[in-house]
Amino acid sequence: MAINDKVTIIPLGGLGEIGKNMTVIKVNQDLLIIDCGLMFPEDEMLGIDAVIPDISYLTENKNAIKGIILTHGHEDHIGALPYILKDLSVPVYGTRLTLALAQNKLKEQAIQTNATFHALKPREIEKIGPFRVELLRLCHSIPDSAAVVIHTSAGTVLYTGDFKFDQTPVDGQLSDYYRLSQLGEKGVLALLSDSTNAERTGFTPSERALYEKIEEIFRLSKSRIIITTFPSSLYRIQQTFWVAAKYNRKIAIISKSMRNVLDVAYQHGYLDVPPGLLVDPEQWQQIPNNEVVLMTTGHQGEPLSALTRGSWGDGRQITYQRGDTVIISSNPGAGNQKTIARTVDALVRMGADVYHESANVHVSGHASQEELKMMLNLIKPKYFMPIQGEYRMLVLHAKLAKELGLADENIFILENGQVLEVSSQKGAITSKVTAGRILVDGLGVGDVGNIVLRDRRQLSQDGILIVVLTISKETGQVVAGPDMVSRGFVYVREAEELMEEAKIKVKQALEKSDERKATEWAAIKTNVRDVLSKFLYEKTRRRPMILPIIMEV
Amino acid sequence: MAINDKVTIIPLGGLGEIGKNMTVIKVNQDLLIIDCGLMFPEDEMLGIDAVIPDISYLTENKNAIKGIILTHGHEDHIGALPYILKDLSVPVYGTRLTLALAQNKLKEQAIQTNATFHALKPREIEKIGPFRVELLRLCHSIPDSAAVVIHTSAGTVLYTGDFKFDQTPVDGQLSDYYRLSQLGEKGVLALLSDSTNAERTGFTPSERALYEKIEEIFRLSKSRIIITTFPSSLYRIQQTFWVAAKYNRKIAIISKSMRNVLDVAYQHGYLDVPPGLLVDPEQWQQIPNNEVVLMTTGHQGEPLSALTRGSWGDGRQITYQRGDTVIISSNPGAGNQKTIARTVDALVRMGADVYHESANVHVSGHASQEELKMMLNLIKPKYFMPIQGEYRMLVLHAKLAKELGLADENIFILENGQVLEVSSQKGAITSKVTAGRILVDGLGVGDVGNIVLRDRRQLSQDGILIVVLTISKETGQVVAGPDMVSRGFVYVREAEELMEEAKIKVKQALEKSDERKATEWAAIKTNVRDVLSKFLYEKTRRRPMILPIIMEV
């Protein structure tokens, strides 16, 4: 065997988490990147807009990168592209719709790049450096989703991306069973497969299951229908279009980002828009209530935010009316049930009929256990690495593979950054590269770290108390202050007495400092902080951030 | 008919929400309070420990209050008692265990009160002012739960509290079907019934269903078993005791608050503790792993917090080991799924076998739709008011009553504070009294309001930037500053340039102010805030709180 008898697999995102999917395949010194996703922030990441993978490993090996290949057009697979292409100018590959959506993202964020874009047809083999790359159709909740097959001299690696085995896909494009099984028959070195639904038994229902449900809601509705969903849930939107046309309703797409995505899909022939269906979003108020459908999404594609704020993505307000039908067709993923419940409550209070999770207006786009087993049985890989899931999901997925007869030592549960080397002889985790989370807040990428987050957390719990002193340069004496300002701590008008007492405490502390000639600012600050912190905790059982500021005149 | 031909019902908590249950029954000028609960804070109530009902209406009518009657010993029914009894010294009634738990709460919080406590037996009628009050056994997840029946000259009101129709209750104490149906036969003026599970079809399983599940887990476990649950889930704890004894394991109750609650239950004969079962919580490490069970809860009775922090309620640490079995038996209520998922993930990573929601180690303590219908059919009330639930649940419960034949005009969905008057002739919402939420933060009750919360929210999103200036009293000139300090905004070492630019902006703004002789502080502050806010948003797309402070020397 030559030097290229092994393939190295380096996940930079998507393991032990849902989102920011990114995996590097390395042969000799050449790198190929699969997917480039972002993750929506978790609750405790206060003020953060998005999370992207740490790509230090890639920037350090810039020249070795041959390309980025995308599996499909969802945020958790293409959303970090605008940030990454700023640093890396490499060719981007994917199916036609996926590339168009990626380019739309760059346009929306006004990103200039020299990167070139190359659309691939399914089953077509493209040579990218030493990699022979092929995309294979797999069903998901958006058209043109694909698995990535990487043929190398050391063997074939198959990366599923998101998938489910939908037997009745909305656009009729079935998963490529033939090619999958043919690869399995020939022999696949390593399978990397989606673990998002590894906790769910059985099969995931078809996207088409939603059609009847949507139709029933349209049949029962006597006034406006308001639908909130992800712009990229294209199959769902397609079916809504068909039902609306059948029931002679017009649709106004309220949110601009949704219009952009739908425009892209339509321009490339992935969306069937019945003639006369869509109306100008400014004009819908001229249409009778029982003939209109309003579709929207919210900030960052989060369908609920528009509803919960009672406003649309572009700032316009909507007043709900008795008789409105509201369909909330979002992913009831962990974490937003409470928001959904509160939203539903508010809408019911306003007299709307609300259809959400329990009304089956959402189906998952990810394979359940029986489908995961089927993928394993089609591919029959030598090595298996569960990807795309929280840790317990990866463990469950690995367990499924074991049940199907894969040897324990050929199954690898990795953490982001761990390096897996596989060859026809053996597989092993050999080292670790830098991997992690970069937080995006506004225009800042990576400038919010643990210290800033820790401060935000403390501020969010008990607020802040600022103590300002002015000290004379000459004498070292306090010439003004201590003045105190608080925010988020107590409502000051109700706490005047507390503040007066606190001032006295500070003055006493300063007098003592003075005696000891502790004119060092740091010492004074520490002293003030300690005295106040103790006093306030005793009085209120709260721990506001205490910030002494000393001015010198 | 005399002046007392009507009963007035005033909910002060528990409507449109889960928790802080409190309802006032009024006849003539006399008031009787049912329950006195707290609510755990919602996510957006940053830093808040608990929420209690606004009792302005009660303090304004102090002398009219004849007593407080409690349905059962859970936080959402007795948790506000320590706060309320500070202001109102009135007799408290309830079943024996409920009263003992309420008194334990007062003791834990070191509350002194002159209030007297009166234990009532089920079916025993007690005269409290003009009210003839009776408690009736209803099954729930804690022993000694009861409905409150209030007999007045204008008719009978029945308040269910929390209940389910458990056919095999752990302590053998069935719901009092005879007395319920007898009341129904004689005629009940108004039924106020629990809506918590109005969204669930069918029947809720018996608490006893957990026994087999717990036993199976014990049978499979080969090392330590760690159980986290609410201290007040007494039936669940009882069954765990029985299973542990059967499998010859010792139990260490790690959390102090749980030990207190179990002590109370044991002392009053509501907990069967097999001899030799319990061991000193300090001593468990001397017991072999496969012979020990650790039970705990966390802060505020929230079972997860001990696990997520990797520490126990009283500060001691536990290191999880490969082979540990962890049972998370908490209420998978809206809002904590994400926390549960993250906890399970961390435990699986450490090698533990984890049983949680999906493993059926929790059953609800609340009646599902068929049981709610049964309650309505047993009582056959003239008027019906769904209580204890979010708005959509109240609406669904009302719909169930309508389906059973109750007239629309006899069903009342109220908001907290609305006043419902019912008599044999008619029922109507007639007015509104003060009702609302009082936030408890540390020792402060009600001193955190909307302004403080709004500030905490802003601080949590983008942090704070403080600008300090010292101005000469005589000349009106800036003699020191502007100095800037930020917290939670950007990591300052990475943003020195930004801060320098910002300082220049402030100086420019001040010079302009100076020219216009705008020596008024408020004007200077507004000017600084506007200039900085605009500048920082342009540069960072963030909106930190900007706090200008001016010192005078």
Automatic annotation (TrEMBL), chains A, B:
<feature type="active site" description="Proton donor">
    <location>
        <position position="194"/>
    </location>
</feature>
<dbReference type="InterPro" id="IPR041636">
    <property type="entry name" value="RNase_J_C"/>
</dbReference>
<keyword id="KW-0106">Calcium</keyword>
<dbReference type="InterPro" id="IPR055132">
    <property type="entry name" value="RNase_J_b_CASP"/>
</dbReference>
<dbReference type="GO" id="GO:0004521">
    <property type="term" value="F:RNA endonuclease activity"/>
</dbReference>
<dbReference type="InterPro" id="IPR042173">
    <property type="entry name" value="RNase_J_2"/>
</dbReference>
<dbReference type="Pfam" id="PF00753">
    <property type="entry name" value="Lactamase_B"/>
</dbReference>
<feature type="binding site">
    <location>
        <position position="49"/>
    </location>
    <ligand>
        <name>Ca(2+)</name>
    </ligand>
</feature>
<dbReference type="Pfam" id="PF07521">
    <property type="entry name" value="RMMBL"/>
</dbReference>
<feature type="domain" description="Metallo-beta-lactamase">
    <location>
        <begin position="19"/>
        <end position="214"/>
    </location>
</feature>
<dbReference type="InterPro" id="IPR030854">
    <property type="entry name" value="RNase_J_bac"/>
</dbReference>
<comment type="subunit">
    <text>Homodimer, may be a subunit of the RNA degradosome.</text>
</comment>
<comment type="function">
    <text>An RNase that has 5'-3' exonuclease and possibly endonuclease activity. Involved in maturation of rRNA and in some organisms also mRNA maturation and/or decay.</text>
</comment>
<feature type="binding site">
    <location>
        <position position="441"/>
    </location>
    <ligand>
        <name>Ca(2+)</name>
    </ligand>
</feature>
<keyword id="KW-0862">Zinc</keyword>
<keyword id="KW-0540">Nuclease</keyword>
<dbReference type="InterPro" id="IPR036866">
    <property type="entry name" value="RibonucZ/Hydroxyglut_hydro"/>
</dbReference>
<feature type="binding site">
    <location>
        <position position="140"/>
    </location>
    <ligand>
        <name>Zn(2+)</name>
    </ligand>
</feature>
<dbReference type="GO" id="GO:0005737">
    <property type="term" value="C:cytoplasm"/>
</dbReference>
<feature type="active site" description="Proton acceptor">
    <location>
        <position position="366"/>
    </location>
</feature>
<keyword id="KW-0255">Endonuclease</keyword>
<feature type="binding site">
    <location>
        <position position="77"/>
    </location>
    <ligand>
        <name>Zn(2+)</name>
    </ligand>
</feature>
<keyword id="KW-0479">Metal-binding</keyword>
<feature type="binding site">
    <location>
        <position position="162"/>
    </location>
    <ligand>
        <name>Zn(2+)</name>
    </ligand>
</feature>
<dbReference type="GO" id="GO:0003723">
    <property type="term" value="F:RNA binding"/>
</dbReference>
<keyword id="KW-0698">rRNA processing</keyword>
<dbReference type="GO" id="GO:0004534">
    <property type="term" value="F:5'-3' RNA exonuclease activity"/>
</dbReference>
<dbReference type="InterPro" id="IPR011108">
    <property type="entry name" value="RMMBL"/>
</dbReference>
<feature type="binding site">
    <location>
        <begin position="362"/>
        <end position="366"/>
    </location>
    <ligand>
        <name>substrate</name>
    </ligand>
</feature>
<keyword id="KW-0694">RNA-binding</keyword>
<feature type="binding site">
    <location>
        <position position="74"/>
    </location>
    <ligand>
        <name>Zn(2+)</name>
    </ligand>
</feature>
<dbReference type="Pfam" id="PF17770">
    <property type="entry name" value="RNase_J_C"/>
</dbReference>
<feature type="binding site">
    <location>
        <position position="76"/>
    </location>
    <ligand>
        <name>Zn(2+)</name>
    </ligand>
</feature>
<dbReference type="InterPro" id="IPR004613">
    <property type="entry name" value="RNase_J"/>
</dbReference>
<dbReference type="Pfam" id="PF22505">
    <property type="entry name" value="RNase_J_b_CASP"/>
</dbReference>
<keyword id="KW-0269">Exonuclease</keyword>
<dbReference type="GO" id="GO:0006364">
    <property type="term" value="P:rRNA processing"/>
</dbReference>
<comment type="similarity">
    <text>Belongs to the metallo-beta-lactamase superfamily. RNA-metabolizing metallo-beta-lactamase-like family. Bacterial RNase J subfamily.</text>
</comment>
<keyword id="KW-0378">Hydrolase</keyword>
<feature type="binding site">
    <location>
        <position position="72"/>
    </location>
    <ligand>
        <name>Zn(2+)</name>
    </ligand>
</feature>
<protein>
    <recommendedName>
        <fullName>Ribonuclease J</fullName>
        <ecNumber>3.1.-.-</ecNumber>
    </recommendedName>
</protein>
<feature type="binding site">
    <location>
        <position position="47"/>
    </location>
    <ligand>
        <name>Ca(2+)</name>
    </ligand>
</feature>
